[in-house]
Design brief:
This protein is an alpha+beta fold. It has six helices and four strands.
Length: 199
């Protein structure tokens, strides 16, 4: 009788432990995925018909240095009233080019109106993170329903989010338009066409 009672208590304990799990993922697909968020930084510059003054150019360069502008950042010019002269836009493009970047064609929507006689430079920065990782809220145990733990995939996806150079590649990827695919596959072709030699 004692053996039966102990077996019954053990079975009830395992069933309660299984019911207490909040993870219902029975696949090998991770529920913890990288999330990409964007932040817009704006700077209004005085840009009259004479172009961009040297003081405004220095202010723009100092602003870029403070933001640590680099690869992955999107720089655009917001001039809805077309009040800025092409000379001023060319000056901004030259400064952006010194950081190894190009001006994006479309500017994002920002708060407030651009005053007359000024143009707005917008820096859009994306960052990737995996919310809720790591998750050690539930103790690991034997699961007879083959469910993955809540922490499953946290290590891989957090590392991917931390190491990717351009977080927007996690959303859209890179566009191959305009690339010479025959040149890109030249090394692979040479490796495959190489004749096998021996001693």
């Amino acid at each position: 009788m004692r053996i039966v009672s102990m077996a019954l208590i053990t079975a009830l304990g395992l069933s309660v432990a299984a019911c207490g799990s909040t993870t219902a993922n029975r696949s090998v697909y991770s529920e913890r995925q990288p999330v990409v968020s964007k932040t817009n930084f704006v700077l209004d510059l005085s840009a009259g018909n004479g172009g961009l003054s040297s003081s405004e150019q220095n202010r723009l360069s100092g602003w870029f240095d403070a933001l640590d502008l680099g690869y992955g950042d999107r720089v655009s010019i917001d001039d809805p009233s077309y009040s800025a002269s092409p000379v001023a836009k060319t000056a901004v493009e030259a400064i952006v080019a010194s950081y190894g970047l190009l001006i994006s064609e479309t500017a994002p929507v920002t708060e407030g109106n651009v005053p007359a006689g000024q143009m707005r430079v917008v820096v859009t920065r994306a960052s990737a993170s995996v919310p809720g990782c790591p998750d050690y809220s539930y103790r690991s145990h034997t699961d007879f329903q083959a469910r993955t733990s809540e922490n499953y995939g946290c290590g891989t996806n957090s590392t991917l989010a931390a190491m990717i150079a351009d977080p927007e590649d996690l959303v859209r990827g890179q566009n191959a338009d305009g690339e010479d695919q025959s040149r890109a596959s030249k090394a692979i072709r040479a490796y495959r066409d190489k004749k096998v030699g021996g001693q």
